[in-house]
Amino acid sequence: MRILIVNPNTTASMTEKAATAARAVAASGTEIIASTSHMGPVSIEGHYDGALAIPGLLAELRERQPAGYDAAVIACFDDTGLEAARTFADVPILGLCESAVVTAGFLAQRFTVVTTLERSRVLIDNLVRRYGMGDRAKVRASDIPVLELEDPASGAIGKLRVEIERALSEDGAEAIVLGCAGMTDLARELQEIYGVPVVDGVAAAVKQAEALVSLGLSTSKRGSYASPLPKPFTGAMSGFSPVLKVG
């Protein structure tokens, strides 16, 4: 099967990091295709960035359709554009936050999501509650701008570890979820250090995508995820106008 990893920000190094994590866990018959948005913010930190990243995300999903993919993973822990992508696509679309917290729920009664900035903490806390894990999970911010995760000299890893240690001692966390795609390469190392499950959203989403494809399941097109109605879009959005599907 072919799984498309779409980075909805425009930083190619983050795409490659996510693709490496995806290939490390993918089954032998799974091909990972990595794609970077060509318009929008260089990182996604909060609602404004996320809203402006969605057109680029949808454009990547559309432009990759002719080559074909069996499922797609949106490589941002804010689950940027997830609902719109599920409406647009005819294959399973996975978000990192939803995939990670569901996976953590299999492993622990209490877990903590450690993310980057406070503005992202609030957004992710709302997602965790929406996904039904609000009574079992806490979300912490480590005061790390996303792009600092790309810089070994930034001190970001030290800040992340401080919050993980607080989560274990103060929250009673039995597992840790890494709340940013830029942290994906740290999961195994941190799991060995702290001796608890450390869940990376990229890996979790890829394995769940494989399961859905293997089961022959995809997003329902009845109701909320029904394909968009054909209508004109104007201005800069004119290229996104839905067209009537034939057959």
UniProtKB/TrEMBL annotation:
Tree of life domain: Bacteria
Pfam family, one: Asp_Glu_race
InterPro entries in the record: Asp/Glu/hydantoin_racemase (IPR015942), Hydantoin_racemase-like (IPR052186), Iso_Racemase_Enz_sf (IPR053714)
Gene3D superfamilies: 3.40.50.12500
Homology family: Belongs to the HyuE racemase family.
Record's protein name: Aspartate/glutamate racemase family protein
Organism of origin: Rhizobium brockwellii
Lineage, broadest ranks: Bacteria, Pseudomonadati, Pseudomonadota, Alphaproteobacteria, Hyphomicrobiales
